[in-house]
Write a structure and sequence with these properties.
heterodimer; A: alpha+beta; 8-stranded mixed beta sheet; B: 6-stranded mixed beta sheet; 4-stranded antiparallel beta sheet; 10 helices
């Protein structure tokens, strides 16, 4: 039977080959994800080892906060230096510094723009290496990372302007630095100053972001760490470089794990779509080989042997395709690296890392999916009666269609139920239920779809006979000839379009909510200033110096800066907060205060959103426990409650923030123009100040809304790009089914050609058949997607999400699907048009 | 949807016939393979098919009768020699022109698989006209449909018709565009004798009453006897001819040739 199975594979190379592509692509995505994250993991591990290699111990703040450095006072460094057994201890100052290029545009911003101090005589302890020139020794000198210098054409001796917390200043480039071996780290830019300059421009006088030390080898490392810990003030701790390395590693793995999971979700969608294609191809091939199967049965093969043969064929195809898929996944990773390099984001050097998981998971996914997809076709094959070898019996009748309808209805119901449980009952992690519900629902609807395929496709194809006459009629009728086949083919696209539609609806709803919230909450704002690029709000933002300069303008009435930070609640979970200027908040933000007052924030305290206050069970005058990066755990008084959704559930005052966070950049600054001053004149005045700060953009309310929407669009594009593969696989499925059907209809095509159908008409007929199938899948997917999207948005209504319907975008998707159908039909239609009339009409 | 080129071609080929011939082959050669393996399916054969007559082509297997049919019908090319349908020489036509010629000038009745399963009987009949995007000649259509004798089964799909009915629909389809010539390849090969008789009677009637031209390939003397004229082939050449045959005269001729 294995021999027969192998022969079967060989005999249907082309047809199975098309199936294999669906498996290859899905597996490539899965394996590629693992290879990609493993390679990053290995590379970063190498980098950490390099960083930590020459260091024995680090001094740091006891508690870690996202995006926060806990500054270490200079005297702590002095104390550590004095510990017996310490050979050398080095403090590095760190902060925000962004270069401006020769044409006045900011460099970087998407990736972090780091500034560091240079410590003479501590090259061993630093991961920063000098690639060219010399390190900064005096004020007015800067060392630039070699990658940025190369990309922007800077030479040693050039002057460069740098945006800093304290304003924009000009420096002379006196050297190029590297990050270990690399010219650049993940696209981040480096500006390195001498220590006094660093203290000044990072606005952290006599404070270090990190302290590292080496022992003189006279005492054991543990003893050394204990000794250092003894001299450290409260809130600080010393750890060995190994511990620090392991923790960095763990953080990295968490981040990579998240990336891995996110990518695997998209890979999973591709595989799911692919499974429909595989199932369909096997079904069709079995139908086409009915005589062969029946003959096997007639000469004595048991039905079990026939099943086994089909399953073995599936395994052979699955194995070969999965192996190719794993290789393709590795190739994909190489391509991604090249692409990133081309965009100037270089990953730390490291070999391509292929761990067993990448191969095992890839192979397992490919083979299991192929096997499962072949189970139903294999059972179909086993039911072929031997007599079919000589008669025109068909497999599967109306009875099984009814059974299928019942099963599909149950599946659909379970899917809906799971979705309901996930979305509308309170649970901590609704994602698994929602995800599983969606998948079950997809299968259910895919099962029901043959029942409505005929009618739907007739409706979709209704205009064709009118436009193209009999060619159109034939296209329409061909598309509904095998409703199951059409349905299975369309289901693959249905899933793709459904997911894309859900994403579109969520994005539109987000945008809708943004518009609503901004108009409601920031209605009184004239202008808003924010970083131009969508970077990490703790790493990029508006320099306080800019706010100061703007506030001095006579045209300006109110300048209200806000900052963003993470704190920890009594469970140790991070929550975000926004700090505001409590004296001007009323003029820029409609907080809709319920109890207490904003003004009270001035002398400390927190303002809570009503729902949050309710959840915590606190009222004005009570206190809540908050842990801050700089001050640790505190009891903070609740000064009031408000209802607005626009900012954060927790608001504190800017002064209160400054004492508790090391963040110095403002996340956002609101500006109101003085009364009697023309808005445009006011804008021109503020813009003039901002020419020195090209990293931020001034926007009026409409532009503010647009910029927020643009951020959503970026996300939409990224997600759609990841879903593209699933859509491609679905289109491939249409091409595959079509090619197989054409093969079946050879005789018919020959007849049509004989009685005068031109090749162009044949192509047109096949093309429209593909378009009908594609449209059927797309419309079904759209309906599902809209329903799912609506359910998700409704569930999130309490979070302030408003349903938005991206009508134009969804129509575009449907049109794109139709065009995809045209694309998918190219090859089958050419094959169909080439049908040899004589061969087709030859009797056998 | 007829385009300009189609119209031009139609006009060119619709020129008034100057001879009484619907089709002819001049010194036709068809060679398969090369060198020693070469097979001369048609070995310099010449034959003429007159307008308004029912011609049968007979001959043993491998005599070249099917090849002749395919070449005259524009489904296959001669290796050398020329084929005319009306006044149009087929050798100079490209695929598209050949297709349009088949559409307008040629009708086909095959042994089986004559009908498109997704179309009704009526739609199958008008298929060549619909493909061309032309309006059917209503009176002619009614006449043909009347003759085919399908009655209320016209709206049925092919699978709901008997074999005989299916072949008569195929014949009607061949007739409906009023082609220059109709080619039939063993049209009754899959039918029982009653159904075969009905079909052949219908074809004879189409020639006699409707003035059509039919060329039919068959190996069955009974079938051939419905024709006005029989051309006998052997080894790719015309080896005999018979006018107004009867079953006996056909059998006699066959015996003569076979001997």
């Amino acid at each position: 039977m294995l021999k027969l199975a192998w022969k079967g594979v060989l005999a249907h190379k082309l047809r199975l080959g098309l199936t294999a592509i669906a498996i290859v692509l899905g597996v490539a995505f899965v394996s590629g994800t693992f290879v990609f994250t493993d390679t990053l993991d290995r590379a970063f591990t190498g980098l950490f080892d390099e960083i930590n290699a020459s260091v024995d111990l680090y001094v740091r703040g006891e508690t870690e906060f996202t995006g926060q450095v806990v500054p270490i006072p200079r005297d702590v460094l002095d104390d550590v230096q004095a510990v017996p057994g310490i050979d050398n201890a080095v403090g590095t100052v760190q902060g925000f510094a962004q270069f401006i290029d020769q044409s006045g545009d900011p460099i970087g911003g998407q990736a972090p723009t780091f500034g560091f101090s240079w410590v003479p005589g501590a090259e061993d302890l630093s991961v920063i290496t000098i690639k060219e020139g010399r390190p900064p020794e005096a004020a007015g000198e800067v060392m630039m990372d070699a990658g940025t210098a190369r990309d922007n054409g800077y030479s040693i001796g050039d002057n460069v302007r740098v945006i800093l917390l304290t304003g924009t200043e000009e420096f002379e480039v006196i050297g190029f630095a590297g990050f270990g071996e690399e010219d650049n780290l993940l696209g981040a830019t480096l500006a390195i100053f001498d220590e006094p300059t660093a203290f000044r421009v990072f606005d952290s006088p006599d404070e270090y972001a990190s302290v590292s030390a080496v022992g003189d080898g006279t005492v054991a490392l543990e003893t050394l760490v204990d000794r250092v810990n003894d001299v450290l003030p409260a809130g600080f701790e010393a750890v060995t470089a190994d511990v620090q390395g392991e923790e960095d590693q763990a953080d990295l793995q968490e981040a990579l794990g998240f990336l891995n999971t996110a990518l695997l979700v998209f890979a999973g969608i591709s595989v799911l779509v692919g499974s429909f294609i595989i199932y369909n191809t096997f079904s069709i091939i079995i139908a086409q080989r009915m005589k062969e199967m029946a003959l096997l049965r007639a000469v004595g093969a048991t039905s079990r042997q026939v099943t086994r043969m089909v399953v073995m064929e599936a395994l052979v195809v699955g194995f070969i395709a999965s192996a190719i898929g794993v290789l393709a996944g590795i190739g994909l990773t190489v391509l991604i690296r090249i692409a990133f390099d081309a965009f100037g984001v270089s990953f730390p050097e490291g070999p391509l890392t292929i761990r067993p998981t990448a191969v095992i998971v890839g192979m397992a996914v490919g083979m299991v999916v192929t096997l499962f997809s072949a189970v139903i076709p294999a059972r179909q094959a086993s039911r072929i009666p031997p007599v079919a070898a000589i008669t025109e019996a068909t497999v599967g009748g109306p009875r099984s269609l009814r059974k299928r309808a019942i099963a599909a209805t149950i599946l659909t119901a379970i899917g809906v139920l799971l979705l309901f449980v996930g979305l509308f009952t309170s649970n901590d992690d609704p994602l698994p239920a929602v995800g599983l519900g969606a998948v079950v629902l997809f299968f259910g609807v895919a099962g029901l779809s043959p029942l409505i395929a005929r009618r739907s496709a007739r409706i979709i194809g209704a205009p064709l006979p009118v436009i193209y006459g009999v060619t159109g009629t034939l296209a329409r009728e061909n598309s509904v000839r095998r409703p199951r086949r059409t349905a299975a083919t369309a289901s693959a696209l249905m899933i793709g379009v459904a997911v894309v539609s859900v994403v579109a609806i969520l994005a539109a709803s987000l945008k809708e909510s943004i518009t609503e919230q901004i108009t409601e909450n920031f209605g009184s704002v004239d202008f808003q200033i924010q970083a131009s690029s969508f970077g990490d709000p703790t790493l990029t933002g508006v320099s306080p110096a800019a706010s100061t300069l703007i506030a001095e303008l006579p045209e300006v009435d109110v300048v209200s800066p806000m900052s963003f930070g993470f704190w920890k609640n009594s469970n140790g979970s991070e929550r975000d907060l926004i700090s505001v200027d409590s004296t001007t908040l009323d003029e820029v933000f409609a907080a809709d205060v319920q109890t207490g007052s904003v003004a009270d924030l001035a002398d400390g305290g927190v303002l809570l959103q009503v729902d949050t206050a309710e959840d915590l069970g606190v009222v004005v005058g009570d206190t809540i426990t908050m842990e801050f990066p700089l001050t640790g755990v505190e009891q903070v008084e609740v000064d009031g409650t408000f209802t607005s959704e626009g900012l954060s559930a927790y608001l504190i005052d800017n002064d209160f923030f400054e004492e508790r966070f090391s963040t110095k950049l403002n996340f956002m600054v609101f500006v109101n123009i003085a009364e009697g001053v023309d808005l445009e004149a006011g804008r021109a005045a503020v813009d003039a100040v901002l020419t020195d700060f090209p990293n931020v953009t001034l926007r009026d309310q409409a532009e503010f809304i647009e910029s927020q929407k643009a951020a959503v669009d970026v996300l939409l594009v990224v997600i759609n790009a990841l879903l593209l593969l699933a859509i491609l696989i679905a289109l491939l499925g249409i091409a595959n089914t079509l090619a197989l059907s054409i093969f079946e209809r050879k005789r018919e095509l020959g007849l049509l050609r004989a009685v005068g159908m031109t090749r162009r008409q044949v192509r047109r007929m096949i093309r429209w058949e593909a378009v009908i199938t594609a449209l059927y899948g797309a419309l079904l997917g759209l309906a599902l997607g809209v329903a799912l999207g609506w359910a998700v948005v409704t569930a999130l209504e309490s979070e302030g999400l408003t349903f938005g319907f991206p009508f134009q975008l969804l129509i575009t998707y449907v049109i794109a699907a139709a065009l995809g159908g045209v694309l998918a039909s190219i090859w089958p239609s050419f094959r169909g048009a080439k049908t040899d009339v004589l061969e087709a009409i030859a009797y056998q | 949807m007829p385009d300009k080129r189609e119209t031009l071609l139609t006009e060119a080929t619709a020129a008034t016939p100057t001879t009484g011939l619907a089709a002819r082959v001049e010194n036709g050669q068809k060679i398969y393979g090369e060198g020693d393996a070469a097979v001369h399916a048609l070995a310099g054969l010449s034959v003429e098919f007159e307008r308004g007559r029912f011609t049968a082509i007979m001959g043993p297997s491998g005599s070249g009768k099917s090849t002749l049919l395919h070449c005259v019908a524009g489904l296959d090319n001669l290796t050398s020699g020329s084929v005319y349908i009306g006044d149009t020489e087929l050798g100079s036509l490209n695929d598209r022109a050949l297709t349009l010629l088949r559409r307008k000038k040629v009708g086909f009745i095959f042994q089986a698989f004559n009908l498109i399963p997704t179309l009704s009987a009526a739609e199958n009949i008008t298929l060549p006209i619909d493909i061309a995007g032309d309006d059917p000649d209503k009176a002619w259509y009614d006449q043909v449909v009347e003759a085919v004798g399908l009655g209320d089964r016209l709206s049925h799909r092919p699978t709901e018709l008997s074999g005989g009915q299916q072949q008569r629909v195929a014949a009607a389809r061949a007739l409906v565009s009023r082609p220059e010539i109709i080619f039939a390849d063993e049209p009754s090969g899959n039918l029982d004798s009653t159904a075969a008789g009905e079909l052949l009677g219908f074809m004879k009637q189409a020639v006699k009453d409707l003035g059509q031209t039919i060329v039919m390939v068959t190996h069955d003397p009974v079938t051939a006897s419905y024709a006005d004229r029989i051309v006998f082939l052997g080894d790719g050449k015309v080896v005999g001819e018979l006018h107004d045959p009867t079953q006996d005269s056909v059998l006699n001729m066959m015996k003569q040739l076979g001997g």
